[in-house]
Amino acid sequence: MDRPDYIIRGEPARLIPVVADSGKESKATSVFLAAMRGVKEFREVMLGSLGLKLGSRAQLEAWTEVVFKDDKEAVRNDRPDGLIVVSTGRKDWSALIESKIRNNEIEEEQLKHYLKRAKANGMDAVITITNQFVAMPSHHPIKLPKNLLKNIDLYHWSWMFIVTQATLLLDSGEFESDDQKFLLEEVVRFLGHDASGITRFDSMNKEWKDLVGKIKSDGQLNKSSEEVENTVSSWHQEQRDLCLVMSRQLGQPVRLKLSRTHRLDPVQRLKDDAEQLAKSKHLNCCLEVPNAASDIEVTADLAKRTITCLMRLTAPRDKKRTSARINWLARQLSKSETEGIYVRALRPGRAEETQATLAQVLESADALDSGTTDVVPSTFEVYYLVDLAGRFAGSKKFIEELEKAVPTFYEQVGERLRAWVPPPPKLQNKKDPVGNEDWEDGESENGDESM
Hints:
Blueprint: E1 7-12, H1 24-38, H2 40-48, E2 59-68, H3 72-76, E3 82-87, E4 92-99, H4 108-120, E5 125-130, E6 153-158, H5 159-172, H6 178-191, H7 208-216, H8 226-250, E7 255-256, H9 260-264, H10 266-280, E8 282-288, E9 296-301, E10 306-314, H11 322-332, E11 341-346, E12 354-357, H12 358-363, E13 379-387, H13 395-414
Parallel strand pairs: 4-5, 5-6
Antiparallel strand pairs: 1-2, 2-3, 3-4, 7-8, 8-9, 9-10, 10-13, 11-12, 11-13
Organism: Natronospirillum operosum
Protein name: Stress response protein
Region (Disordered): 420-451
């Protein structure tokens, strides 16, 4: 595929780029784009995350450090890091690439400039790649006026999202050839090395410590304040990183569960979550794990300075006694480590909720009995509580403890629980009510063969 006419300069993306030692950004971009060129399955996964489905004949070409014909200033100053063009035979789809490594972030004016250049040259999208995390590629760390995004799409990948997608693909083993698998293994090895400049989210925002202290002293939060919005923004990044951490550990894609409104409108999501933080002093997220008994609800309580991981199960309806329902749950968790794990029994209506440690539940089903009602539990909540006390305010320590708590909860609870499924109906051994119990299979009442 030839270089597009609107580009006057650009090198094909190389798997082994020849760049100066200081050009780590260019090197990482070139290696990634070369992997997109060379590994069919990898480009299908990455472009699939943008909603693009590639046919068997689709081809991808990529260039680095491109310069537009109509952008003379970029020759000496500001050049996009890359360009990809996907050809399906009938039409092309193209996207401008701008990437940053380490703590560098895309500047708003730079992004506006690239959007204008891409739109003027009939391109379809601009994709940014940094160490910043977003809930999904259609969200973006920079909020821009909608008029700038008319007739062009804006996407964002974090470097760790790229590494995770490649890792999951390697774990699946679904490659047309061993050569492509080897190539992607080497790319993951390169991008995963500290020297590449690619990092994961490891610290909350700079206002985190003061915000936690303010809540501890019963201070009021303003939902529109910079400290609240920055905290929520950091939490959104950590949610995504948490999904990637769990995905790599499980070898399965763990997704963030969002409402349709929040999936489509990240600005509204930020606004709603900032309001929720100001009111409840909580940060919440929900993780979807493939084939798990339920979603994992994660809550950071800034007032109590605790982290809670919770799964909710429907109690077995075919068991009529409270003890039988509790024993059904206890059998599943009989080999779990019990420290910090609790069970809550929920009953319909206004009937009393009861709670006990998992250790107490395993010792006796009576631990969840109610002294005020005979109503049996309809739902069980199993949760893991981590009380961080003073460590909660540490911007790095909070992330460390959170990313330790969720895998621990999943290992001790999540992977052991099975949702209750109603048993299949049983034959009642009754005569056919129509009186046809003497019919032979395959014959009608007149003895003719049935159709």
